[in-house]
Design a protein that fits this description.
Shape of chain A: globular
Number of helices of chain B: 19
Number of strands of chain B: 15
Largest sheet of chain B: 5 strands, parallel
Order of helices and strands of chain A: EEHEEEEHEEEHEHEEHEHEEEHEHH
Distance between the termini of chain A: 29 Å
Helix content of chain B: 25-40%
Largest interface: A-B, 45 and 40 residues
Strand order of the largest sheet of chain B: 3-2-1-4-15
Radius of gyration of chain A: 18 Å
Number of helices of chain A: 9
Structural class of chain B: alpha/beta
Oligomer: heterodimer
Radius of gyration of chain B: 23 Å
Chain lengths: ~280, ~475
């Protein structure tokens, strides 16, 4: 059992942070890697990239948005409750090196995953510019933490309630126009990563994205998480989750993410009826 | 069959006249709607009549035909005599998992193929597999367990990676010799392919759980959620965690794809994914269990091995209206067990032979709607001696909303890539000594599919037993 030692709510309770006891995973985890969690005996295996790791305390932190049945179930777990299963660290760690100026772009809960990568880029001696995007100011997460690990933090909101009134791509374009950027790391909703990659391709700036396809085992066994990268089939669980954004077939990924839409809706309805 | 007289009172002549006793099975039209086991098992008298068909050869071919060398005539005669306790112990002497082997071993190409009784015209071999299942189920149902006196703890520690048939065998054997054994399993439940791969209707999962419980009673520790190569690696096990020996039995879990256009469409699965969802994650009981599966109305299975049959029969049970096995060779060339093809046909699975997929076709939403195929014909034999299928140029379109690719698996590089000094063959399988299971890395043994490629449960168990003997000798001071 993997006990929750800390729980926080963000963005009007739509985004949840769990710090979980998992000493074996914490010992090995590196920025960019993910874990798979199961809430209870009936639960499905949910992959989530780690937002933080405390090697001394032996804990890992996940931050997720409540979007479906399983994340709703996760959100009911309180401090002292446990996840039935947590396995990891899975996937390849982010490739971190000193390159010059690195722009880290986060959207939605992607910012949570982006944080440890931003920190690693910062600690490696890069000049780090962070761009964080959200619907409105209430949905901006990890602002202080991102500030601490970047030289510059820029905020974009869809409604202009904080920072730039507009998309992260507009902010990024300004930076790409005005300075030499060695790498862009973009993590967030698939459309955001798609448009960031499209933009950086025009400027020939290497771009890393982190993908979140549907998967079961996380070890290469099921092939459910296959994504098309430069025309080749790759498994996000073992070859990724990070890939060259200029090579990713984002439309294919979006399609595959919707594979179980009907089943998910049915399942949520079923659990709602069970509770009633 | 009239079982009024117990088989042991029959004369030799009468024994020889007994026809092969048919395994009672659920009716196809009943079983194709649920996941409970197809085979129901022999009753005692039935089993005794079947066992009495054995003519007790002096030099029994069946024992040589068994990959682990079970003394088959002995356990059959013990069944006839009613010494069931003796019979199960004879079996346990050579195999740790008789309930599993009785169900999933390909007996028709092993012990039963060489059975002398079956060599006579019009006669069928003794149903050895069915009897192994009978005696193992009897032991489980009556609570008879494999009581062995465990010697005092040796203080030696062994890590077993993977909880499938090879790992279970190694762990059990070494625990019985007084060594401290820990199994590391990547999934959240132990059992490996017995759990995620073989469906409930062929091997009930409570049998697997029971076997795992037996291991725990022997003192074996089972640690789930541990991906060796990620959570911990082999060198750490040996150098930092103080294990004296490591056995690698991680299977060959990487699904092969066809590498044809449209493979990323929704509705195209690997058999591994489809079966893991249905079996391990219990998607057949969705939405009680949270993991969904696309049920499919019109299902095409690509490939014709045992796994393909499992996938096809699972699709039938999940409510598909039509399930078709699409195979580029012929029925005779299918690597599947005959009984599996027979069961699949009984349940309404259709077969399309000499048909090879060229391209998956999707609709505007990226959902599979069909497969473009090419008709094949048989040509010259290939290196393996099987006639090679060659394209005819004639195309055929198959309507389907679900396609399951079942064309085999390869070695997963996750563990082998992170382990130093471990020699692999050109397919990525670990090179291990055929007799001992020793790898090129000191203190590390391997067995099962990670060394063989895709093979059988019983071969994995046989290798596990050999490796356990070699590990025991090494822990007792024998040189590497």
């Amino acid at each position: 059992m993997y006990k929750i030692v800390k729980r926080e709510e963000m963005a009007h309770g739509t985004i949840i942070l769990n710090e979980i006891e998992a000493p074996q995973i914490a010992k090995k985890a590196k920025a960019g890697q993910f874990v798979i969690l199961i809430a209870n005996e009936y639960g499905e295996r949910i992959p989530l990239t780690m937002a933080d790791v405390d090697k001394e305390k032996g804990t890992i932190t996940i931050i997720y948005m409540i979007v479906g049945k399983s994340t709703k179930l996760f959100s009911t777990l309180k401090v002292g409750d446990s996840y039935k299963d947590v396995v990891g660290p899975l996937g390849q760690p982010t490739h971190i090196e000193k390159k010059g100026t690195v722009v880290c772009v986060g959207g939605g809960t992607g910012t949570a995953v982006l944080h440890p990568i931003t920190r690693a880029m910062y600690q490696a001696g890069n000049r780090v510019i962070a761009i964080v995007g959200a619907r409105n100011k209430d949905y901006i997460i990890m602002k202080e933490q991102m500030q601490k690990v970047s030289h510059e933090l820029r905020i974009c909101t869809d409604d202009g309630s904080e920072g730039r009134h507009g998309f992260v791509t507009e902010e990024l374009k300004e930076i790409l126009e005005s300075e030499d950027v060695a790498e862009v790391v973009a993590i967030g909703p698939v459309p955001m990563m798609k448009f960031v990659s499209k933009l950086t391709k025009e400027y020939s700036v290497p771009t890393t994205v982190s993908l979140n396809p549907i998967m079961i085992d996380g070890t290469g066994m099921c092939g459910g998480c296959r994504v098309t990268i430069g025309g080749m089939t790759k498994f996000a669980c073992v070859d990724g989750p990070e890939f060259d954004g200029h090579q990713v077939d984002f439309d294919g990924l979006m399609r595959r993410l919707l594979a179980y839409k009907a089943e998910e809706e049915y399942s949520e309805k079923y659990s709602f009826e069970q509770e009633a | 069959m009239d079982y009024e007289v117990e088989a042991k009172y029959l004369s030799k002549k009468e024994r020889r006249a007994i026809p092969r006793q048919h395994m009672p099975e659920q009716a196809p039209e009943v079983r194709n709607k649920d996941f409970s086991e197809v085979t129901l098992g022999f009753g005692l008298l039935e089993a005794q009549y079947e066992a009495a068909r054995c003519i007790q050869c002096k030099d029994p071919a069946c024992v040589k035909g068994c990959p682990v060398g079970i003394n088959i005539p002995a356990f059959l005669e013990q069944i006839v005599e009613g010494d069931l306790n003796g019979a199960i112990n004879t079996v346990w002497d050579k195999t740790a998992l008789p309930a599993v082997c009785g169900r999933v071993c390909p007996q028709e190409i092993q012990c039963e193929e060489v059975c002398v009784v079956g060599k006579k015209k019009g006669r069928e071999p003794v149903g050895i597999g069915n009897l192994e299942m009978f005696i193992a189920d009897w032991a489980r149902d009556t609570g008879v367990t494999n009581e062995v006196e465990i010697p005092p703890a040796t203080g030696k520690r062994v890590a077993v990676i993977g909880s499938g048939p090879a790992g279970i065998t190694v762990a059990g054997d070494l625990a019985k010799k007084g060594h401290e054994v820990t199994i590391y399993e990547a999934f959240h439940r132990a059992g490996g392919v017995l759990l995620y791969g073989i469906p409930e209707f062929r091997l009930a999962k409570n049998i697997v759980d029971y076997e795992i419980e037996q291991l725990k009673k022997l003192g074996v520790k089972i640690v789930c959620n541990t991906v060796v190569g990620r959570t911990v690696d082999v060198d750490e096990l040996l150098e930092e965690m103080g294990y004296d020996a490591v056995f690698i039995g991680v299977g060959a879990g990487l699904p092969n794809f066809l590498n044809i256009p449209g493979e990323d469409l929704n509705g195209v699965f690997s058999a591994n994914e489809y079966l893991t969802r249905a079996n391990l994650m219990k998607a057949f009981d969705f939405p009680k269990y949270d993991t969904p599966i696309i049920p499919g109305k019109n299902v095409a299975i690509l490939g014709a091995g045992n796994v393909a049959m499992d996938a096809a029969r699972t699709a039938v049970r999940l409510g598909a209206k039509k399930v078709t096995i699409v195979y580029r060779r012929t029925r005779e060339q299918s690597p599947s067990r005959k009984i599996e093809i027979h069961h699949a046909e009984q349940e309404g699975v259709q077969f399309k032979f000499l048909t090879s997929p060229l391209e998956f076709i999707g609709d505007a939403n990226g959902k599979l709607v069909g497969i473009n195929c090419e008709k094949m014909k048989l040509g010259e034999p290939d290196e393996g001696g099987r006639a090679r299928p060659i394209p005819t140029g004639e195309h055929e379109y198959i309507d389907c909303d679900l396609a399951i690719i079942s064309i085999g698996t390869s070695a997963n590089p996750l563990l082998t890539k992170t382990t130093k000094n471990l020699k692999l063959n050109k397919w990525g399988n670990i090179e291990a000594d055929r007799r001992t299971g020793k790898t090129t890395k000191k203190g590390v043994w391997a067995g099962g599919d990670i060394t063989l490629g895709q093979a059988t449960v019983i071969l994995a168990m046989g290798m596990g037993r050999d490796a356990a003997n070699s590990i025991d000798a090494y822990l007792n001071g024998e040189e590497w």
